[in-house]
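Notes from hallway chat w/ T.B., transcribed later so I don't forget. T.B. wanted the structure written out for a chain they're using in a teaching module, and asked if we could keep both sequence and structure tokens in one place. Agreed to drop them here.
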Amino acid sequence: MSAFFFQPFEFVIIIGGALGAFVCANSMHVVKTTLSQATGTLKASKYSKDFYLELTAVFFMHSPTKHVRGFIIAGRYHR
């Protein structure tokens, strides 16, 4: 990939247009709430890897799956 295809000013224009359209289309309350929620996604998760592994195991134990000709068929949708 050459430097010809990398256009940083194009990204600035697109993102600026998108942010401007978002601000114009919504009330200030919605804009402030969105910004506060967006910054909240950058914080560390309150769930650990062990929690997700246990949750995945519970989902697997309670899902009715069948192996049919190499495919996994979920529950009653198999004909």
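Follow-up for T.B.: Residues 21 and 71 are 46 Å apart (CA to CA). Might be a good example for the class.
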